[in-house]
């Protein structure tokens, strides 16, 4: 009888166990990596294959939709999302003089070198150091936009550790690819605001412009999302420094040509920031890469496209899922970071 009761309790407890295993509202922790400290969250079992999410320009870990993170975890992954340097709760760079972003953009447009306080490869080193701190030797990487560029560097720097790449709405950085519209570039440049209300309105305008023309956004919802991000952390100078890191980057075509990592490239046909040929170009230069184009997808995780995105990504990740190898000799992960 005791055995039957135990079995019944075990069976009845499975759904709640699965739910708690992929609970996304976990504490944010801080990893001290020496030069920088990165704020991160780890969702899922430590023993599951690790999937590192790398966010784009100015994005915080909260910009990975919770339902997407939960779906990735339920696929059997330990999902790790973090704030890049200069955004969110990670280290903000306080050195360097005032940045003249307009001047540097002009230099970029005429083919001159751009000065940046750090490189995308430095941000890739940050991510690899985070995985060192978490004692994870090999892992999968999913990067969006600038995060996809950082992910490309990670795969080149540590090919024996990155088990697969999933690159969303990103670019090779090659010359001659279609540029975003001047109107969108103006919105991207509006990073300074005299007060909270103006900053939130500016971010809402940008979110709307990055969305798909096939989807009618709820502006009140966008305002709410912008307010949450602002109240968590607002660092426009940091976003400018990240922008400089992108502009200072030469073409990554040679890097892509030498990659031998299983790669899925996903891009939207309505991307206003990195038009679809950016994704096509990335896939064309990675040996064996798969390319999936999503009609109507722009440059945001909009509700209408979450299912198509997951339908493109989940089967690929499942096909390449392998056990995670951990380093037992490294120190324990850092303690909880109180927000």
Keywords:
12 helices, triacylglycerol lipase activity, 8 strands, Alpha/beta hydrolase, alpha/beta, AB_hydrolase, disordered N terminus, Rossmann fold, signal
How would you describe the overall organization of this protein?
With 339 residues, the protein is of the alpha/beta class. The protein has a domain of 236 residues: Rossmann fold (3-Layer(aba) Sandwich). It is globular. Helix 5 links the parallel strand 5 and strand 6. The N terminus is likely disordered. It contains 12 helices and 8 strands. Helices cover 42% and strands 13% of the residues. GO terms for molecular function: triacylglycerol lipase activity. InterPro entries: AB_hydrolase, AB_hydrolase_1, AB_hydrolase_fold.
Give a quick rundown of the structure.
This protein is α/β, with parallel strands linked by helices and 339 residues long. The protein is built from 12 helices and 8 strands.
What is the CATH fold-level name of the domain at 29-178 and 235-320?
A: Rossmann fold
Stretches where pLDDT is under 50 for at least 5 consecutive residues are 1-17
Distance between the terminal alpha carbons, to the nearest Å? 48 Å
How would a textbook summarize the main sheet?
Answer: 8 strands, mixed
The amount of beta strand, in percent, is 5-15%
Question: How many β strands by DSSP?
Answer: 8
- The neighbouring-strand order within the major sheet is 1-2-4-3-5-6-7-8
What radius of gyration results from the CA coordinates?
20 Å
């Amino acid at each position: 009888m005791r055995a039957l009761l135990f079995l019944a309790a075990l069976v009845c407890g499975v759904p709640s166990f699965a739910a708690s295993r992929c609970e996304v509202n976990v504490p944010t922790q801080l990893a001290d990596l020496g030069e920088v400290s990165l704020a991160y969250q780890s969702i899922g079992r430590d023993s599951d294959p690790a999937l590192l999410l790398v966010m784009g320009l100015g994005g915080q870990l909260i910009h990975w939709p919770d339902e997407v993170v939960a779906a990735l975890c339920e696929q059997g992954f330990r999902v790790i999302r973090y704030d890049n340097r200069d955004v969110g709760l990670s280290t903000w760079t306080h050195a360097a003089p005032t940045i003249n972003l307009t001047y540097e953009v002009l230099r970029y447009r005429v083919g001159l070198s751009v000065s940046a306080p750090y490189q995308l490869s430095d941000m890739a080193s940050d991510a690899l150091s985070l995985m060192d701190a978490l004692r994870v030797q090999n892992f999968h990487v999913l990067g969006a936009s600038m995060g996809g560029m950082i992910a490309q560097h990670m795969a080149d720097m540590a090919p024996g550790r990155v088990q697969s790449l999933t690159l969303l709405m990103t670019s090779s950085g090659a010359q001659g690819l279609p540029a975003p519209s001047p109107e969108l570039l103006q919105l991207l440049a509006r990073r300074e605001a005299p007060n909270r209300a103006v900053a939130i309105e500016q971010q809402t305008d940008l979110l709307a412009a990055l969305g798909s023309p096939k989807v009618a956004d709820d502006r009140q919802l966008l305002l709410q999302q912008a307010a949450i991000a602002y109240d968590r952390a607002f660092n426009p100078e940091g976003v400018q420094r990240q922008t400089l890191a992108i502009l200072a980057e030469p073409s990554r075509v040679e890097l892509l040509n030498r990659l031998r990592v299983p790669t899925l490239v996903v891009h939207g046909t309505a991307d206003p920031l990195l038009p679809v040929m950016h994704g096509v170009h990335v896939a064309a230069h990675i040996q064996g890469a798969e390319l999936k184009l999503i009609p109507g997808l722009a440059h945001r995780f909009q509700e209408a496209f979450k299912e198509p995105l997951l339908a493109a990504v989940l089967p690929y990740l499942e096909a390449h899922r392998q056990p995670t190898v951990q380093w037992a000799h490294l120190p324990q992960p850092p303690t909880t970071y109180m927000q």
